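Input record (one chain):
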Amino acid sequence: MSSPLRRKNLKQLRAFKYPTYKMSPSAMRSNSSAVAAVATPKPAFSAVQPVTNFAHKIANRPDFDHSNKPIEMTKSPDPNWSYGDGVRTSQIPAANQVHREIDPYSSNRSVSQNYRLLISGIAPRPVGFLSTVSKDGKTKNLAPFSYFQMVDHDPPMFIVSFSSRHGRIKDTYQNMKDTKECVINTVSENMIEAVNASSIDAPYGISEWDITGLTEGETITVKPSRVKESVLSIEGKVVDLKEFEGHRPGMSGSAIFLVEATRLWVQEDAANEDFSHIELDKLRPIGQLGGMAYGRITSTFDLPRTRWVDEKPKSEWLTKLESERSNL
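The corresponding structure, as predicted from the sequence alone:
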């Protein structure tokens, strides 16, 4: 259970008024890139990149394996690794690797370059499939987000962030800001096409529920529906919002929402007896990678957490480190 102090802090957080941070171009750039502040604005950025001949591109790829064969359990990459070994399995030693320094705010660096680099380097990313409703309750919205993560379990807390975009903010952003409610749904292999379809730029008034054909499920503490096809759904209330403005001319602001879970819905046959664990073979999660790519899990390995008191007697390296520290 969480401490009284932690609960007190959470109450203070819920009562906190949403601030808006204005970040000037000069504050966001290093001194070496000050010229960027007066540079000609680059064309508006869109995360949706044009795709041509996609059907032709994938025509010769093998079909997706729907056999649901068990996820393989293997040994870790280097079972004989010892403390102090660093990385032993790389073909090129770390000392010989060359890294390039990049100033993300350089005048010759575009938003698109930063976007593509970061989403391909921070991967895989879990996909949070969010259900929201408008302030008047008339419009329902479904949308996937990979700028999403769990940040605590007691209380269950999540973050969902919205990047700046050309024009107005996303409907999900507006709905969460207005109603302070959402449902976070997990994404499994068998539903990825429907989830991806929900990101289409549909005209106002057309529901993503109808576009995707997904099934609405009841909720208890919030108005948005949950996705019944999802193995895990989380009803949530917004407890904090940080908004940022002034990134690029013509772009909307970005934001980070902190969401506390109020109810959890778990598919019965996917969990163990006391609903403390979801089987990976049932969840079959999808992760988002760079570009248009997604990844699935076909094999895993275990690595236990270790304790110094247990490991030091077995390791000459750890014993040496402790001895050197004592001699300082």
